[in-house]
Structures are given as C-alpha cells and as structure tokens.
Amino acid sequence: MKYDVIIIGSGLGGLQCAHILSHAGMNVLVLEKGEQAGGCIQSYKRRGLAFDTGFHYVGGIGEGQSLHAAFRHLGLLKLPWHRLDKYFDRVTIGGQTFSFAQGYDEFVNTLQAGFPAERNALKKYADLLKQSGGQQYNLLNPSAGEDVFSSLLFETSAWEYLAETFQDPLLINVLSGTSLKMELRRESLPLFTFAHGNSSFIESSWRLKGDGSLIVDSLTDDIRSYGGEIIRCACVEELIEKDGRLVAAQCTNGETYEGNIFISNVHPAITCNWIKQSGKLKKSYRARIGSLQNTFGMFTLSLRIKPRTLSYFNWNQYIYKKPDVWTFHLENNPVGGVLVSCRVPEDGSEYTQQVDILTPMPWSWCEPWSHTTIGRRGHEYIQMKERFAGECVKLAGRCIPGLNDMIAGSYTSTPLTYRDYTHTPDGSAYGLRKDYTDPVLTTLSPRTPIPNLFLTGQNLMLHGLHGVTMTALHTCAEIIGREEIWNRLKN
C-alpha cells in the first residue's frame, strides 16, 4: 500500500500534522520508534498515578486568543482544561515574590506596583508581547504580507533588549523568571523566542485536569477515525530516494512503507542520516544541520504527596536563590532555580496528590553516563540524581513550608532519560538552539532540499505546546496550501 503522507515520529508536531492532513482527506501513516506515542508530552504511571514528562501548562486557548482556532480544529478544546488564577505565575527571588497576571493591562498594572518607575517600559514590553502573540497564526492568512516585525525580532538579542528597555536589574530578572520554559542564554537567545515563549500565557493560562496522555489520546483517536494509521515499534533506518524524491521508509522490523510525501518530526540531524544516498541533499546542507547545537535539558522531580497534606495551588511557582536567572545553571552547584507545578485534584478534594519540580540540567552533567542505558547507569548516577532532588525540594520548600515531610514517594528524570525514551539528542528540552547572531543558519524551514520531504516539531522555529502547534500548521500549509489551512481554521 502506498500512503499519501508518511510521518516519522509521533511527538506532538507529528500527531498534529497527521490530524490536520488526515482530516483533509489524505491517507496518512505515522511511524513511531517507541512503544508509546506522544514524544515529550507522553506520561507514565507509577502506583496508580500518571506523571507528565514535559507538559505542565499552556497559554492562549481562550476564545479569540492565539491558540484557540488551532485547538478547536484539532479537537483539543473538548479536553478538561482548568484555568489558572488571575496571578498565574509567581516569581520568588531571594525573599521577594512578584506575580504575573493574565491580561496584558493587568500584567503591566501588577508589576508596576513594585516597579513604579518602569511603567512606560512595561507598557512597551507588553505591546511587544501582544504583537508577537498571534503573529505566527496570522501569517497563515494567504493575504499576509512580508513579516518584517518577526525578522527583526529574530535578529535582536533578548538579553540586550531587556537591558536597554529596563533600568532595574531586579525587574529584568523578574521578567525572565518564568522562562524556565526556554533556554535563557545571553549570547544567543533571540528576542523572538523570548517574546513568543511568554506572550500566550499572559493571554490566558491553563492546566489539564489530568495528564498529557489526554492530548495524545484525543489526537490519535481522531487520526484513526479519519482513516489514518499509527504503527508503534517501527524504527526507521533509511529513507530511500529515487529520481530526487523520497519513495519509501525502511524500518528495522523488515517492513518498507511507500509514500508520496514524507514529514519528519524527528531531529533534523537524525533525519539527514537516514538518507544514505541523495542527489538533492548536498554536503553543505548536511554539514549545516550537523553543526547546529541543542538547547539544554531538564531535571524533573515528580513527587507523590501524602493524602490531605498539601492544598492545591492554582498557579505556577518559580523560585530562585539569587537574582541570577540567566546564569545560575552554569554554576558547579546549579540548582539555583526551579519551577514548581501542582496537579489539579481529580478526586474533587482541595488537596493535591502530585507536584513536579523542574530545573535546567546541561548535558555536561550527564556526559559521564552518556554511554549507558536506562537501569544500568550505576551508583554514582543515582547519587547525582538524589543530590539534585534534595536541592530541588529544599529550594521549593521556601514557598511550600514543610514540603519534605509531605512526600510519600518521588521519581526523577534527567536529559539521559529523555534521550533514551523520546530519542531526543542530548535530551534537549527545547530542540535546536536559535541564535540571533545567525538566524538564517539556526532557524529551519519546514521545506528541505528534497521536494517531498518536510520537517516539523520544536527544532524548527518555535518550541513548546503553542510553538509546536503553530509549526505543525505551517508545515501542513506547505503541503495543502495556506488558503486551505486558513479556511479550515476560520471555519
């Protein structure tokens, strides 16, 4: 059987492309290397509780907001979304706590109370976020013109913009304090990435009443209902090219799947390595892709909380020891900042059963065990994880007094875990590193030199649930046209 579209990788971007294209009437096949679909939004179960791996909250799904139309088309609005408090993010630096409010005006008013001299700068910053928020969605409009605003943001340093716009160093740290959902790196992070990564959450912020598998199950059920097919444990080993176009994906199970169009949701360097012989994929393109660096990974501590000991808190807590939000992870003792996220009680009570604590973990911390596999990393690796976990709990305890005594059990993951389960190089949390000094090199198009091979996922332009969704829409627009995508979203 020959498929209209073969999608490699069932992470969020792959599943969303499969959903859009199968809904459009195309015969779609998804090939997944692992036993479980979902990539970085899959979950796992321990003693009756499901724990998330990468998903914690999403922004902009309210009526008329930047992600609403896409989620409506993808059938995701029907999930049990739970809106966070007005003050959805709280940033504690040293002994001070600052709140981020939903709504751009409220966002400015709340922060200017603590920084009255910065009101005009905050309004300017909020206008920038508002303009960048729905930009990628609006670019799908067939009548949209050249995106000068976006290109300028790609070529601007996020750090330099903040340093030039705001006078108070503490405010710069506060505004950056919710950005553990991206790699803060002074020498490379584009303003576009920083702005897009923060804007949608100010529109509105939401958690699921449940785990990320609800998203995966909804997408996969719809794909199958539209006639699409998903095959797990199908590890691609070669993409076969003939006469300048891909014709088939060959898997290690001995099966070969033929297709007219191919989409890779897998890291671009891995994708290139699958194409053994090509008249289209030149050495220069392979070298370009192979030279790109990956963002850092995350250490995640998932806590099982003793019954009726911790009341649910309907916001995210970011906690830092010192005002060094951009650099703390570079130190030898790097747990200087954490994100604490609370699971919505599913039993109707006021008490939570689960808390996740996340902190950046550069690959260098994992390199001594890079040659190992899950369950065979040794005692020193276990000790390293226990030390990180202890430091995370201690820091989170600044905002949750007595947290250590509430813990009934814990589970940890490192970039090595992500690498081995989701097959992400270096266990990268946010894909390829974007660099404002060379945006052309580090920002990838869905198109490749092979005319029927397309890319999608967090390695292209944007990461996160919002970013990957926008990228999937742009990938599909390259295949069925912007007008078709735009009409489907509008109707």
Instruction: Return the structural class.
Output: alpha/beta
Strand content: 15-25%
* Beginning-to-end CA distance, first to last residue: 33 Å
What overall geometry do the principal axes of the alpha carbons give? globular
Query: How many β-strands, per DSSP?
Result: 19
Q: Kindly state the percentage of residues in helix.
A: 25-40%
Output the radius of gyration: 22 Å
Average pLDDT number: 94
Q: For the report, how would you describe the main beta sheet?
A: 7 strands, mixed
* Number of DSSP helical runs: 18
Stretches with pLDDT under 50, minimum 5 residues:
none
Tell me about this structure:
- The chain has about 500 residues and is α/β, with parallel strands linked by helices.
- The chain has helices at about 10-25, 70-75, 105-110, 120-135, 135-140, 150-155, 160-165, 170-175, 190-205, 215-225, 270-275, 285-290, 380-395, 405, 415-420, 440, 465-480, 480-490, and strands at about 1-10, 30, 45, 50, 60, 80-85, 85-95, 95-100, 205-210, 230, 235-240, 245-250, 255-265, 295-305, 315-320, 335-340, 355-360, 405-415, 455.
- α1 runs parallel beside α17 (about 465-480), α3 packs antiparallel against α4 (about 120-135) and α4 (about 120-135) packs across α9.
- The longest helix is centred in the last third of the chain and has 18 residues, at about 380-395.
